[in-house]
Structures are given as structure tokens and as C-alpha cells.
Amino acid sequence: MQDTKNPKVRLKTTLGDMTISLNAEKAPKTVANFLRYVKDGFYDGTIFHRVIAGFMNQGGGFKPGLTEKETFGAIRNEADNGLRNETGTIAMARTSDPHSATSQFFINANNNDFLDYKSPSESGWGYCVFGKIVDGESVSQAINKVSTGSSRGYDDVPKDDVILEKAEIIA
């Protein structure tokens, strides 16, 4: 049975497994959106396509070879929920439009308070945290240490694919 307030998702990667506890009370739309992608199998076989040492690991939008996946529509940014971009938290990636998040997420590899909500302006919205790693933080740290370079016009791409083999709801 799925925990409705704090569902847990296991991310099985080529470098090991991480368990994420989601905060549906503070970020209900974001959690529902993420779980929709998980239930759909969308994340299975995707890669962590952007890794910046000491900053974050981003995934959820590309297959190996940097082939972008088609997503559902964008969701409202819930970064004003009081959750902070601290080490081990998961947040939604987006474009410069504060309300443009779809499927891509990132795991904070450091305390990134400059990504937190400040005000309801384009530059102040921040990035919505919607959960945290409760098991497997060492896997996130290992991902954050992979060698990166440029590929197909993108920077900070792991030289060897770090694949998110499966995302599954476990509680």
C-alpha cells in the first residue's frame, strides 16, 4: 500500500540504488507529477545527463545518446513550500520560466540555498524540493564524482552513462 503523505520511490541506477521519501504534504502537485512519471515507466532507462561536482545530479529527461523524451505538460512551481535545497534532497529542474518543470529532477549534492524560494518573481521562485534520499546517499555521491565533458551541445555530461534503470514505488 502506498503511503499517501510520504510515498517512497526506489531509483535503481547503474551505480546502485537510492530510496527517496517524497513530501506530498508540502509539494502535492509536484509529488503527483513525479509519481505519474514513475507509474508510467517514463524514467526507466533514462540517464543522469548533467552532473556538476559539489552541486547536483540531474536526470529524468534523456535516454542514452542524449535523446530527449517527450513529457507531459508543465506544472506549477511549489518552491514556496518551505522545503530547502539541502544535500540529499530532490527538486524539480526547469527552464528560466519558474513554472516550466515537467519530468526532469535533480538531487542536491550540497546545500544549495541560492536555489530556494525567495519571492514570487521570475528570479525569486527557486526550485521546488519535493523529497529527500533516505537510503543510498552514497550512490548520489558516487554519481556526483563521475567524469564529465561536453556532448552534442550539452556540458557536464557524464562520459560514461549513469543509467536510471528503474524507478519504482515501494511504499
Describe the structure.
This protein is mostly beta strands and 171 residues long. The protein has one domain (8-169): Cyclophilin (Beta Barrel), CATH 2.40.100.10. Helix content is 12%, strand content 35%. The protein has two helices and twelve strands, in the order E-E-H-E-E-E-E-E-E-E-H-E-E-E. It has helices at residues 28-40, 137-143, and strands at 8-13, 16-22, 46-52, 56-59, 62-63, 67-68, 89-92, 105-108, 129-135, 148-151, 154-158, 163-169. The strands form three sheets. It has an eight-stranded antiparallel barrel with strand order 1-2-9-7-8-4-3-12. Strands 5-6 form a two-stranded antiparallel sheet. The longest helix is centred in the first third of the chain and has 13 residues, at 28-40. The protein starts with 7 loop residues before the first strand and ends with a strand.
Write the layout of secondary structure elements.
Layout: E1 8-13, E2 16-22, H1 28-40, E3 46-52, E4 56-59, E5 62-63, E6 67-68, E7 89-92, E8 105-108, E9 129-135, H2 137-143, E10 148-151, E11 154-158, E12 163-169
Antiparallel strand pairs: 1-2, 1-12, 2-9, 3-4, 3-12, 4-8, 5-6, 7-8, 7-9, 10-11
Function: PPIases accelerate the folding of proteins. It catalyzes the cis-trans isomerization of proline imidic peptide bonds in oligopeptides.
Domain PPIase cyclophilin-type: 13-169
EC number: 5.2.1.8
Summary keywords:
171 residues; Cyclophilin; two-stranded antiparallel sheet; Peptidyl-prolyl cis-trans isomerase; Cyclophilin-like_dom_sf; rotamase; peptidyl-prolyl cis-trans isomerase activity; EC 5.2.1.8
